[in-house]
TrEMBL record:
Gene Ontology CC annotation, any one: mitochondrial inner membrane
UniProt-listed NCBIfam families: PRK05089.1 (NF003465)
Protein name (database record): Cytochrome c oxidase assembly protein COX11, mitochondrial
Superkingdom in the source lineage: Eukaryota
Keywords: Membrane, Transmembrane, Transmembrane helix
Residue ranges with Basic and acidic residues bias: 14-28
GO function terms (MF aspect): copper ion binding
Subunit structure of this chain's protein: Interacts with CNNM4/ACDP4. Interacts with RANBP2.
Described purpose of this protein according to its UniProt entry: Exerts its effect at some terminal stage of cytochrome c oxidase synthesis, probably by being involved in the insertion of the copper B into subunit I.
Length: 216
């Protein structure tokens, strides 16, 4: 059986024919190599594109479904009826990330605060555009541990809204929230005394707001 890529010319073949056969085999191998390289390049580009898009899409999915530790929208009726759990204090830490395509400085103004379930709290992030051109950013967020996300309610937030910063402009971004006292009824979270709120900013083109109807 002939093995592709290996010459099987009989020794008695005319030298010119043998050389032509070898050239044909070499050309075939080069075409194979180019095909493989093209395929690998397409795979790399495709994976890069997916990795860029997957994070914001995943966060948007989490915002709708509640999966992955996303926080919940607060209601005024819920706030009025809350009864704080005074004997339970939870430390909330804050994290800030910026996607590689967005040339912003973004950070929390406090590293941590202590909150009581059932009482409101206010935190701030700071964003700055250090460039000489206006840039639009949009943020996503989540909570760790994931299961605590359903009890982390935001009253005011800058997430999923386009934020336009002019050249060298710096702004404060408030996060007004509370932890639902019902967290104390979840046996899986009775020993949780630390929650981390994370925001990630991505660059957005004007008019491409990632905000979803009904979310602020």
């Amino acid at each position: 059986m002939e093995r592709r890529g290996m010459s099987t010319d009989p020794l008695w073949m005319d030298p010119h024919d043998r050389r032509r056969r070898q050239e044909e085999e070499e050309a075939f191998r080069q075409r194979q190599n180019k095909t493989v390289l093209s395929y690998l390049a397409a795979v790399v580009v495709g994976m890069a594109g997916l990795s860029y898009a997957s994070v914001p899409l995943y966060r948007l999915f989490c915002q709708v479904s509640g999966f992955g530790g996303t926080t919940q929208e607060a209601s005024s009726e819920k706030i009025e009826k809350m009864v704080p759990i005074k004997d339970r204090v939870i430390k909330v830490t804050f994290n800030a990330d910026v996607h590689a395509t967005l040339n912003w400085n973004f950070r929390p103004q406090q590293t941590e605060i202590y909150v009581v379930p059932g009482e409101t709290a206010l935190a701030f992030y700071k964003a700055k555009n250090p460039t000489d051109k206006p840039i639009i950013g949009v943020s996503t967020y989540n909570v760790v541990p994931f299961e605590a996300g359903q009890y982390f309610n935001k009253i005011q937030c800058f997430c999923f809204e386009e934020q336009r910063l002019n050249p060298h402009e710096e702004v404060d971004m408030p996060v007004f929230f509370y932890i639902d006292p019902e967290i104390d009824e979840n046996p899986n979270l009775l020993n949780v005394n630390l929650i981390t709120l994370s925001y990630t900013f991505y660059e957005a083109k004007e008019g491409s707001n990632l905000a979803l109807p009904g979310f602020k």
